[in-house]
Structures are given as structure tokens and as C-alpha cells.
Design goal:
By secondary structure, the chain is mostly helical. The chain has 13 helices and 8 strands. About 35% of the residues lie in helices and about 5% in strands.
Length: about 325
């Protein structure tokens, strides 16, 4: 019996040592997506304009890396912190810790090279070799056209400095270790021709990362098989709002929608006369940044709609609002 217990003890010790060694490797040797490229992005007017469009209306970098005024419908950007970071993705929203969008103005990343910014956007490894939590959708951005990433970099380099120090993140165990396995080398592509509506729509929807919110999540991670089926929960002061099912299911998704209805849903917020209203205590807000996506070109919205018509329909009736 003693010999058996000794063998069991040795096995347990070996397993503990192996686990410790694996954790040490993940913690110290990863992430490892390669060196940041040595590049200098030329800030041409064309690139800056393209980057401004992408960052504000497609990839909506400025949505997370700024401050939203949640007293108004859809939480439009509040003045004074454009690019200054600080939006929280915390435990009360279901994330395994507290993660904060960083300051991407010159005050925050002014010492970063263009290559270091490029690597962070497309792989999830920052200037200091640290892994970014994938609420920053670098796994999607790493599939885009190199030129579009250059355009975003050119644009954010023009932002005015915002002196805002962002709270350091707090990742819970075991995510504080596993986070180092999440960055991946980029798999860049060429932007398809706009005439190839479905392929171009897939590109645009990847850039917009619609799947990140329009899927179910557990501990901050997408649940496989729920893509575009909606159900992600956003905690509001007076309850929960859930993302919509945007698959082409006829009963619970957007299968019965026309292209015109889809465009109208977005462009209703593009009218210069539209002003977001104050959200009352008995009214539920929307986490969807309608005012930003409303600025998307009609051709890009049409392409997204064409692509969504091709995804697998998911029959899931989403209870949009749940009041306390």
C-alpha cells in the first residue's frame, strides 16, 4: 500500500511540475507572433481619409477607444476624449476580469513605431510584447488588407493628444495565463472588388466585427455555433439588452428583411437633423453604436446585407430587453 501511495505521489508531483512548466512557458515565451515590421506609413490625404472612414464607421476603433455618453440613446461619443481610451469590459459584463481600451492618441502610443501599432492591430501583441485580450478584434483585423491597416494607422496618427491615463487591466485566473496563447500571426488578404458583392460583404463585415457582438458569449469568448445568431448580453442600469439575431432565419432573424429595410435601419441615424434622445429611467438603451455605423457607405451596407443572406440561419428568438 505504501509503495502504491508513493507511486501515486510521484505521478501527482510529475503532473504538477509539468503543469508548472507549461504555465511558465506560456507566461514567459508567449505570445510570439514575430517582430514588429519595420515600416513607416506615409500619411497621404487619401490614406488619412480612408482611415478616418474605417475607424469611425466600419472598424469603429473610436467607439471603444473613446468615451460614450450613456445618458443618450445608443451611447454616442462624448466630447473631449476622442481616442483617449478607457471603455471598460468588466466582470459585470461577463468578462474574465477587467479590460480597458487603451489611449491611442499620441499621449498613449506616441512612442510606438508604426510597425508596433500594425502588429498590435493585426496580431494582438503590443509594443511591450504583451498579449491583448481579444475583445480588441485583432483576429478579424488580421484578415484585412494591409493597405486598410496602413490607412487606420495614418488616421490615428492625426488624433490630438488626450492626457488620459487608462486603468491597467486585471485578468482573472486562468485567463491571466491563457491570454498569452490568444495572439496569432496575421493572415492578411486583399480587399475584394466591390462588384463581388458577397465576397466584399464578407470583407466589410469582418472589418466591422459584427460577429463579435451578434453571437452568444461565455466568459468573454464567442460560443461556437452561435455566430450572428445574437444573444450577447449588455448590462444596463435598468436591466439587460441583448444583441439581435442577424442570420437569415425567416422567423427569428432578418430572413424576411429587404435590402431597403436594412439600409433604412442604419441610415435613420445619418440624418443631420437626428439628435440622440435622453434615455429615461423606464426606457432601455441600445449598445449598438448606431450613430457610427450610420456613416457607413450604402454600398458597404448593401454588401454586408448580401453576405448575411448567405450565412447559416439560426432559429433563435432573442429576448431583446429584460428589465430589472
Amino acid at each position: 500500500m505504501k509503495k502504491f501511495l508513493k507511486i501515486v505521489g510521484i505521478i501527482i508531483l510529475v503532473l504538477v511540475l509539468l503543469a508548472a512548466a507549461a504555465a511558465s512557458y506560456v507566461k514567459t515565451a508567449l505570445p510570439n507572433v514575430g517582430e514588429a515590421p519595420v515600416i513607416t506609413v506615409e500619411r497621404t490625404p487619401e490614406r488619412i481619409e480612408r482611415g478616418k472612414y474605417l475607424a469611425n464607421h466600419v472598424t469603429i476603433c473610436m467607439d471603444c477607444h473613446s468615451t460614450r455618453d450613456w445618458s443618450l440613446f445608443s451611447g454616442p461619443l462624448a466630447p473631449g476624449n476622442l481616442g483617449g481610451g478607457g471603455e471598460a469590459f468588466s466582470r459585470d459584463l461577463g468578462f474574465p476580469g477587467a479590460f480597458y481600451a487603451r489611449n491611442i492618441t499620441p499621449y498613449g502610443i506616441g512612442t510606438w513605431t508604426d510597425g508596433e501599432v500594425f502588429r498590435a492591430i493585426t496580431t494582438g501583441q503590443n509594443k511591450h510584447g504583451e498579449a491583448l485580450f481579444p475583445i480588441m478584434p485583432y483576429l478579424n483585423y488580421g484578415q484585412l488588407d494591409e493597405e486598410d491597416i496602413y490607412s487606420i494607422i495614418a488616421y490615428i496618427r492625426t488624433l490630438a493628444p488626450v492626457q488620459h491615463d487608462v486603468t491597467p487591466r486585471e485578468a482573472d485566473f486562468p485567463v491571466n495565463i491563457l491570454i498569452n496563447t490568444m495572439p496569432m500571426k496575421a493572415n492578411l488578404s486583399k480587399r475584394p472588388a466591390e462588384t463581388d458583392l458577397v465576397a466584399y460583404g464578407k470583407y466589410v463585415i469582418t472589418a466591422a466585427s459584427c460577429v463579435e457582438c451578434h453571437s452568444k458569449r461565455e466568459k468573454g469568448t464567442k460560443v461556437p455555433g452561435t455566430e450572428y445568431g445574437g444573444g450577447m448580453e449588455f448590462i444596463m442600469p435598468n436591466g439587460i439588452v441583448r444583441s439581435a439575431n442577424i442570420t437569415p432565419d425567416m422567423e427569428t432573424g432578418i430572413g424576411s428583411w429587404t435590402e431597403e429595410a436594412f439600409l433604412k435601419r442604419f441610415k435613420a441615424y445619418a440624418d443631420s437633423s437626428y439628435k440622440p434622445h435622453k434615455v429615461g429611467p423606464k426606457e432601455m438603451n441600445s449598445a449598438m453604436p448606431w450613430m457610427m455605423y450610420a456613416g457607413m457607405k450604402e454600398g458597404d451596407l448593401k454588401a454586408i446585407f448580401a453576405y448575411l443572406k448567405t450565412v447559416t440561419p439560426i432559429r433563435q428568438k432573442v429576448v431583446k430587453f429584460e428589465f430589472k
